[in-house]
Design a protein that fits this description.
By secondary structure, this protein is an all-alpha fold. The protein contains 13 helices and no strands. GO terms for molecular function: protein phosphatase regulator activity.
Length: 245
Amino acid sequence: LQDIIPQPLLDQYLSMTDPARAQTVDTEIAKHCAYSLPGVALTLGRQNWHCLKDTYETLASDVQWKVRRTLAFSIHELAVILGDQLTAADLVPIFNGFLKDLDEVRIGVLKHLYDFLKLLHADKRREYLYQLQEFVVTDNSRNWRFRYELAEQLILILELYNPNDVYDYLRHIALTLCSDKVSEVRWISFKLVSFSILQKFYANSANALGLNFINELVVRFRHCSKWVGRQAFAFICQVGIFFLC
């Protein structure tokens, strides 16, 4: 029970997940319910999250990908409303499910990946280092905007991890994106490796890691047998100089 929203009105909202209403009222009523849920949660406050928890879990497992996609795009906003404890207990499992969903759903998580991860405790956040690699693979290889978004998010995510984690996990993803078939993805990835990652190493006095990374760039691109690799090295240097200036 709660005394913020008139109970009949809240009951009407919660009933929007009833499959019978999708057949008699509106076929997209569950999507509308998912779209409004962060606003309802904000109105009720985190102390009344128990009123919405079951409804949220029902929407998160809806057979319509558009409903799950709507939740994926707003899960970071709901995490701010609920706070770290409720997020870890109730949202993280759903977030993990979205990570393995269709690309149409995963893109919602990916676009706000930094916003969600920064709300988690460091130990929980570190668990996702192993899963970031999965974003490189998509259902449709021609979906290059997915990989472009990944590179943009990695630029932000770097601040959440220490230099050793960046070197052990994120550097592999960055180097893979630098060899992408689509030039737009390669360009944003050049910024990622030549400015963001190197800056991360040297700003944290991880000079040895920075030097190792530079040597790897030289071996992988400067001495590449294909001209596109050597061209990539020139662009990496160009982007790095541009941002440093």
